[in-house]
Amino acid sequence: MKIYTKILIGMAVGAIIGLTLGPKSSFLTHDSYEIDKGTQVTLLTDKDNPESEITIRATEPLSLRAQQTIMREVTDGNGKTQELPSLVRVKFKFTKKMGLADKDGSMSKALGGAKVGDKVEAWLVMQHRKLDSGELLVLPVPVSAIGSTIVAVLAPVGKLFMRLIKMVIVPLVFCSLLVGVAGLGDVRKLGRLGGRTLLLYMMTTAAAVTIGLLAAHIVQPGNFVAEKDKAALVASFESAASGKVDAAVESPTMVENILNIIPDNPVASLSSGNMLQIIFFAFIFGIALTILDKKRSQQVITLLDTVQHAMILIIHMVMAVAPFGVAALIAEVVGQSGVSILSALLVYSLTVVLGLLVLAAGVYGGLVKFVAKLPFLDFLKAARPTQLIAFSTSSSSAALPITLECAEQNLGISKSVSSFVIPLGSTVNMDGTALYQGVAALFIAQVFDVDLTIGAELGIVFAATAASIGAAGVPGAGMITLAMVLTSAGIPTVGVALILGVDRLLDMFRTAVNVTGDLAVTAVMASTEGEKLKYFSTDDDMKDKTRGFEGRTDREPVPIEPEGEAEREA
Ligand code: ASP
What we know:
- Helix content is 64%, strand content 10%.
- The longest helix is centred in the first third of the chain and has 40 residues, at 145-184.
- β4 and β5 (81-93) form a beta hairpin.
- It has helices at residues 3-21, 96-101, 106-110, 145-184, 187-219, 227-249, 254-259, 266-272, 275-291, 294-318, 322-337, 340-344, 346-371, 376-393, 396-410, 415-428, 431-447, 454-470, 477-488, 496-528, 538-543, 563-569, and strands at 32-35, 40-44, 53-57, 62-75, 81-93, 119-125, 127-130, 136-139.
- Strands 1-4-5-6-2-3 form a six-stranded antiparallel beta sheet, with no helix packed on it. It has a two-stranded antiparallel ribbon with strand order 7-8.
- The protein has two domains: 31-71 and 91-96 and 115-142, no CATH class; 155-550, Orthogonal Bundle (Proton glutamate symport protein).
- By secondary structure, it is α+β, with helices and mostly antiparallel strands.
- Aspartic acid binds at residues 394-396, 430, 433, 471, 473-478, 507, 510-511, 514.
C-alpha cells in the first residue's frame, strides 16, 4: 500500500476515534469536569456550610469526576424557572503540583488533611451565568472521563510524530539552503529570485484576504449566529481569548520584526529554530562560499550536502510512523472540539472553507497552469503529501521538510530554488491564515454590528498581509495575529472568543492551504528561472528507489568503515 493511502486511512481512523471515543463524544456519558490549567473553581467541603468554601486554581489540567449532582430550581432572566445542577459531588486526585501550590497547607487541611496521591471528594459549585438573552449558561460543561483518558493516552503518539519531523527542520533547511545558494553561484540571480519571491508571496496573501472578505460579504456568516450561541461562546471562551490577545500585545513591531531577521548569534538562531534568521545566515554563508576559492569551499559544501541527504532519509523513515501519528493528532483535535460547537458556527466555518477552495482553485490554479505551465491536477497530486501532513499537524513549519520533498521529488524543482523559496514561504507566506482572518474579522464585525468603511477593509488587507509575515507556522498562531488585525480595523478583540471553539479545526484547513501556496509560488519561481517542471507520480517513485516518497528506506544499510581502520587492515 502506498504511504499516502496509509496516512489517509490513519486520518480517517483518528477522526472516527475522536468522534466516538473522544471527551465530547455523544456516545459516552459526560461524567467529568476537565478544568484547564490556570482556571479557578470553587469547592465546598461541606455542602450545607458556605464557610467551608475553598477556591482552587488548576496548576495543571485537572479532572474532577462527578459522583452525585444536586439540582436546584433557578429562574432565568425571562422569568422562566428550570432545574439546573447547582452542586456536584466530585472526586479528584490531590496531585504533587497541588501540594506544592498549597504553600501553607490550608487546602490540604480543608480537604481533611489530604496528602499527595490521595483521592479526595468535595462539592463543585456550579456557575449559572446569565446571558444577554436572559437564558442561563451552566459552567463548567461536563465531558466523558473515559474519552479524556483515551485522548490523553493517544496524545504522546501524535507528539512523538511531530517531534520526529520537527527534529530535522533546522539541519535540513540550513544545509539545503546553503548548498542551494552555493550551487547557484550567481549572487545577482539570487537577489532577483528573492525580490520576486517576496513580491509574489505578498500578492497571493493580499489576494487571499480579499477573497476572505468577499466571501464573508456574500455569505454574511454573522447573520447565522443565534443570540444565545453568541453569548454562550463569549462566556465559555473569553478567558482563553484574552490569553491570545495578551500574546498579541506582546508581539514585536514591524521594524523589530525586520531587524530580527539578522541574527546576533547564528548558533543561537539554529538552536532556537528561528527560521528567518537561519535563512538569512545560510544565505550569506552560501554567498561567501561562492566567493571563496573553490578548493576550500568544496569541502564544506560536500559535508553539508551529505548531512542534508541524511536528513532527507530520516524524513522517509519518520514517514513510516506517520499513519499512527496523524491518527493520534486527529483523534485529539476532533475529540476535543466536539460537534455541537461546530453547528453554532457552521456557516462561518463553511465560509472559511469555501474561501480556501476559491483561493486554491482560482489563484493557485491560475498561477500553476498559466505561469508554471503545469496541469493543476498534477500539481495537486504532487502537493498531496505535504497537504496531509499540514492538515493533521496544523503546522506549516512541521510540514516544511515534506514540502521540500514534494517540490524536489514530485515536481523536479531544483534545490537552489526550492531550498530558498519554501523555507521563506513557510515563515512569511500564510495565505490560508490571511484569508481566514479576513472572514473572521468581517464575521466578528457582523455579529457585533460594527460598520466597516472601505478604508477599514483595506486596512484589514494590509494588516492581515503584514500579520502573516510575523506569524509562526505553528498551531493557532493565526489566532494571535488576528487580534492585531481586529484592532487595526476597530473591531472589538473580545470577538476572538466567538470563534475560538472551531479555531483548531479550521486551522487544519488553512494550514493545508498555506503549504499549497508555498509550493505554488515555488513552482512559479522555478519556471521563471527557466526550469521545466514535471510531475513524478508515486508509481515513478516505486520504480526508482533513489527518488520519491516510496521505498527509499527499503535498501539495506551499508556499514561505513572509518578511513583509519580500512588503512590499518590493508
Ligand atoms: N497553523 C498555521 C500554520 O502553521 C498558522 C495559523 O493559521 O494558525 O501555517
